[in-house]
Design brief:
By secondary structure, the chain is an alpha+beta fold. It has 6 helices and 9 strands, in the order βααββββββαββααα. β5 and β6 form a beta hairpin. About 25% of the residues are buried. Bound molecules: adenosine-3',5'-cyclic-monophosphate.
Length: about 150
């Protein structure tokens, strides 16, 4: 894993939907507290059960969330991961594997919590995405519903 220059982060952050509600000044703050990191294809960026120390936003490349239960989930540029362990103060809930070279913005847990507390637009965007994930996980396959009604 390689850490890239901080000044490279800002232009890449402008296109990230998670940051769409932030003012240019708030976006600069995010770029200041974040680090741009390069993970080679095949690397585990986070591992199930590890303590959570950072939150990540995919800037380039693709990754896979590999859970104990449920199908793997694809992540692309603009997606984020690693929020659950930091919000819950709990171990990582899944592996996240770079399926090709991934450039990601990493934000440490202290800075992440500070952003959650101070930037309502950021917090709202995280909350919306987490709710969408819960909704997606709860979409029961037809056969499960059929079994319940028998
Ligand atoms: P965290 O638990 O910190 O580390 C693994 C990450 O995988 C997790 O945060 C989420 O970002 C992501 N993840 C885990 N489970 C799901 C899910 N059901 N849907 C989408 N993303 C998930």
């Amino acid at each position: 894993m390689q850490t890239l220059e901080r000044r490279e982060a800002l232009p890449a952050l402008r296109g990230v939907p998670l940051f769409a509600g932030l003012t240019p000044q708030q976006l600069r703050r995010v770029a200041e507290v974040g680090r741009v990191k390069l993970f080679r294809a095949g690397t585990a960026i986070v591992r199930l059960g590890d303590p959570g120390d950072s939150f990540y936003v995919v800037l380039d490349g693709n990754a896979l969330v590999v859970r104990e239960n449920g199908r793997p989930l694809k992540l692309h540029a603009g997606d984020f991961f690693g929020e659950l362990a930091l919000i819950e103060n709990a171990p990582r809930s899944a592996d996240v594997i770079a399926t090709d070279d991934v450039t990601a913005l990493s934000i440490g847990h202290t800075a992440f919590r500070r952003l959650l507390r101070s930037e309502a637009a950021f917090t709202h965007a995280i909350l919306k995405a987490v709710v969408a994930r819960v909704r997606n996980d709860q979409r029961a396959p037809r056969w499960q519903l059929d079994n319940l009604t028998r």
